[in-house]
Each structure stands twice: as C-alpha cells, then as structure tokens.
Amino acid sequence: MRRFVCSKEGFHTKKDSADDGKKRRKRATIREGCQAMIEVIQKYYGRWVVTKFVKEHNHAVLPPSRVRYVAPEEYADLEPFIGMEFPTHEDAQTFYYAYASRVGFDVRIRLSRRSTRDESFVMRRFVCTKEGFTPYEENFDDGGGGGGKRRRNRTPTREGCKAMFEVIKKDYERWIVSKLVLEHTHELAVAPSRVHYIQSQSEVVVLAKSGGGGTPRETASALNSLAPQIGEPGRGGLDHHHHHHHHPTGGEQDARNDTREAAGQSSFVIGVEETQSLLDYFKRLQDENPAFFYAFQVDKNDCLTSVFWADAKARMSYYCFGDAVTFDSSFLGNKSMLPFVTFTGVNHHLQSVIFGGALLTCDSEASFVWVFENWLLAMCSRPPVSLVTDHSEVIGAAAAKVFPSTRHRINKWSILSRTRENLSNIYSKHATFQAEFESCVLASETVEAFESDWNSILDRYGLRENLWLQSVYGFRHQWVSVYTKDAFSAEISATRRPESLSRFYEKYFNTKTSLLVFVSLFEQAVSCWYENEALEDFANMYTKPVLKTPSLLLKQAAEFYTRTIFDVFQDEFIESLGYHVDRVEDGEVCKYSVAKDEDARTTCVVTYASSEKKASCSCCKFEVSGILCRHILRVLPIVGVCALSEEYILKRWTKNAKNGFVLDECVRYNDICRDATKYAKEGSSSMEVYKVAKEALQMAFGEVVAAKKSIGCTM
C-alpha cells in the first residue's frame, strides 16, 4: 500500500515552534491540515488500484504554470555545462533530474547552503547516488547483530562516484552552474525501459510523453513499443480483407460451448468471424512490430483449429534463457477452460519468462507436432537443452519427433499434484506422508538413497499394490530429481516450485471469454512479468548484495551474478563450511569425499584435475543448475583455488545475461523498411523538404557503403 498526501497535510507540532532555549533553524509553517490524498494498494499480478481518494484541498492551489513539469523537447539533447544559468534552483534541480533520467543514473542532494540573512538557498549540490562509500560495517552482515543492536540489512549502493552538479545563486535571481563532473565510475542504466525507475530523492518529476511517433495504445498490447528483436515475421494464411474487430456475441459463445460439450473435451470450435477478428489483430501487431510471430491452421470451413503467437520480447527472452523450457498443457483436458498452452522458462532473476502461447482445438499428436514446429521456427530453429511437459503419450511422441536432441522430462509438480489426488486417503490419515514422499522424490542425492526411501514408504504405508505409484515409478527417469541430472534444466533447487500463470488463468479465462479479450488479458498478465524483470535489472545496476563473510570467492561472485543468483550461491558457500572433506585418491586427478554427517547416502565425491583446474561433483548440481554446489565450494580452498574461472560462471545467471543480443537479418531489414516508410512520408511533404531528404539519404547511403567495405561485406 502507498499513500500520497498534499505537503500541507497535518499540522506542525508544538516542538517545531517551541523556543526551549535550543538554537533552531527557522522553518516556514506550511502545514494546514489539508485532507487531499490518494491511496493505492497492490492487487493480483502486480496491478495497483486506487482505494481512497480525496480531491478537495483546504487552501489555494498553485496554477498549472507553477507545477514542476518537464517537457521532453525542452531538455531533449541539452548537456549541462559550467556557466549554465537557471531562473531558480528548482529549475536547475528539475533539469539535472531530467538529464539523469535520460542518461541513466539516480540523483540525491548532497549539500545545500542558506543565506544568513533570510535563510533562503544560495547553493545546491546534486550528486550521483553512488557518490561516497558505504561504511564496511554496513556492508558486512556478521549475523550477530553486533553490540546487541539489530541492524537493518541494507544493500550497499555507493561506489565513490564523483559525478556532481552544483549551482550557486548570483545577482538578479540567477542560478549558475559553478561546479560540474559528468563522468561516472559505474555503468549507467541507459536502456529507456530502466530509466523510468529512477527515483531521485523520493520525488516524482513528471516527464511529458511526446505525442508523435508512437503507435496507439490498444486493449491487448502491452508490448507494442518494443523494438524488433529476433527471428522471422509471422506467417499468414487467411485473406486479411476484413480489418475489423469482432467480439463474439453471447449466442455465438454459447454455441461454441455447446459444440464442445457434444464433441467431448478435446473438441473446441472457433467461428469464422472470431477467427478473422483474431487474425486481423495479430496481423496489425506484426505490422507494428515485424518481430511479432504468429502461425495458424484453419479447417475447410475457415474456422480456426490452431494458432500460435510469440511477441518480440518472448523471442528475445528465448535467445537469452531458452536453454530450459516448460510446455504447460494442463488446461487442455478441462472443458470449462480455453484450450491454451504456453512455453515458459526462467530468467537470470529466477523469474518466469514467456516464450509463446497457443490455442489448440485438438489434443492429437499432429496438433502438438504443429505447435512445436512453429514454436521452434519462431525461435530461429534453436531447440532447447531440456523440455519439461505434462505426462502425455501424444505430447511425448510429438516432442521426440520435433526435438530429438532435447532431454525430455515430465513435470514433477504435476506428478506430485496427481499423487495427492490418487492417495488422498493416505494424505489425510498420515500427516507425515507428504513430507516423506516429497523428500524421497525431490531431495534424494543418490539413486541408492531414492530406491531405499521409496521402498521404505511403500512398506510403511502398505502401498506395494498401488497402481498409481507403480505407474509413476515406471517412468521415474523422467521426473524423479536424482534421475534427471544428465542435462541442464535451470533448476536451482529441486524443491523450488516455479512461478506459473495457472492461478491467473483459472480465475479469468473460461470458454465464455472471447478470444480477443483472452489474448489481451493474457498479454497484460505477461507484461507484469516483463515489468518485474525490468525492475530487477535496474535494481541490480544500483545495488550490491550483502556479504555474509568477507570471502574472495563471494566478492567475485557478487560482481558477476544477479542479486537473486548470488543469494543462492552465497547460501551454498555458507552451507559448505559445515561439511568435512577426506581425500580418497591422490594423483593428477584427486578425489575427495565430502559429507556433512556420517550418513554414506549423503556423501558426494568431488573430482579435481589439477592440470586443468577443473572440478566436478557426483551430485551434478552444476550440470543441472549452472551453480557450483557446496561440495565443490568446500574443496576449492583446499586445492588452493580462491577465484572462480569463467567456465563456472554461466552467462545466463549474470547481470550481463542479455548483453550481446544480435538482430536477425530479416528483422533488421523489416525494421529499416518501416523507418524508410516514415522517412518517405515526411520527406515528400514539399519540394523543399524533398530536396533536403534526398540529399541526406544520398549521404547516408554513402556512409552505409563505406561501413560495409570496412568490415569486408560484399554489395
């Protein structure tokens, strides 16, 4: 919840005005008990809703001309310089805040001086928020609350940056820039998507949005402003002559539901008009952003049978985080829900990311082959390392055909959920069963430990003849954690359940929802994921994690990893300190037994090749998650390794995970064509403008030719 009030809210206390003999700065009395306020609370999926609002003030309000408002064209390209003048110090502050937002850093007021005559400001100094340094004792959490005091765990942000902007008051109410340092000692948040998160001194400076050049906001597009990223544009198939939106009437939707009821759960009918409406909408999205991909199938009556789509952000995310993918088809068997499937993954903040969605009116093997093939086409024909799906013979067969080199796994959370349904009487009678069963299938570190615990559970609860458990045991190699260590899966913790759209989907989408409303609400939900990712990206640029111990390994990891991944790494490191090590083999390749207690089932073997300085562990955590395990971290100091080599730091977990992304040639071509169309429209408005445009175009063409020659490209 956040509540914003007028600065004249409340009253000054007597302490503020009392003369008790102490020297106090004279402050103007500004509070008058104004009740104006606005209160917002966070609702589902990150949405904020106004819950309280009082519009009326009990005092005169400033005219709009006095409200601090920065138009983008006013300071669009203006750089600060020594001698720059402003009519007031507020104008200077507003300018520097706007400059900071454009360049990509945060600002705080470092120093102010007042006149001894009338207490008015005569100097203001603004600095980067990374100015100075965080005291060591604030940057180190000893866990003991030194001195008996509880200290808030603050994330350090200061790095000794020298950037600053100082203005002093001159005669005739002029403020002049007297000191200026433009260089920063750190990376700047230059991406526009990050800049709007900068909050200088907890003040809100309104930056006006330009009215030109953008696309109109439409109901179902939270992403229209994204630049093209990768892959080919979508493929059409139905003639797009009708560019209108048609929302199905209640009768049409009821007919659609009745048809599905009669045909069975797997049958879902989408009418011709609704089909055309949805495809017109997708076509318009692609016109606005060539990287938007969609593909569809229609039957002999031009009714939609399958449609897949992925926006530019989804395709870019796959380029960075597409090594491990989950295909969620859990709602296909529910006849009261729309037959929707999604492709998702995990980003470098352990947040879920979307790689595309599809509507399938049939759950046959051919349908899944079609959606897998088109999804793969949208992702530049680059298959994932691992694919997690729900347990289904037809999905498994389709995955084997389209992704022959991908490690196919079954969603263990789906298995656990269905186990609870099939063994509901056991769960209700025995309070300890769930913990025992989940520990067995999720936390067993060796195959022997799993088999022992599994058999123990079967005997203890009389489940030897249970058909469900016999069935899931038969394909245990596809879902039990200890058997799925042969390929990367981005699974940081075997017991950590990934974020899902399921709750949102169950709440808002059913067969009575029109497809356009469905798509728009889905995109709005996904946009919350994008927003959360952008927030984390920005936070990682402006904060540093708190080290629990001053280890060189931790300091190095803190520089590379995102805050979320560093926390995981640090937990592994701290846990490693409680393990003991025994060398079991000497030589060029040494082996170490690493265990926390005497239980042989929890003992892991770390192999270290001194010539290559490479370590591996029998737990295979690094191979599965890309994070070094506690066993290797325990051995590294023993063999004299105090720094992580590059091979142990996966880029997908680092702050720079999204750096180095390259546009596909087709998208680059479409992007330039789109800009060229705008250029031609503006450049042909008059003969004078045409001549200028033509001359500029010829100069630009010459520069392009020269650039191609310089890098060895042929014409």
TrEMBL record:
UniProt domain SWIM-type: residue ranges: 602-640
A GO term, aspect molecular function: zinc ion binding
GO terms of biological process kind: regulation of DNA-templated transcription
Tagged with keyword Magnesium: no
Major localization class: nucleus
GO CC annotations, alphabetized: nucleus
The keyword Zinc appears for this protein: yes
Domain of life: Eukaryota
Subcellular location(s) of the protein: Nucleus
Region (Disordered): 138-157, 227-263
InterPro entries in the record: FAR1_DNA_bnd_dom, FHY3/FAR1, MULE_transposase_dom, Znf_PMZ, Znf_SWIM
Keywords: Metal-binding, Nucleus, Zinc, Zinc-finger
Family per similarity comment: Belongs to the FHY3/FAR1 family.
Described function: Putative transcription activator involved in regulating light control of development.
Protein name: Protein FAR1-RELATED SEQUENCE
Phylogenetic placement of the source organism: Eukaryota, Viridiplantae, Streptophyta, Embryophyta, Tracheophyta
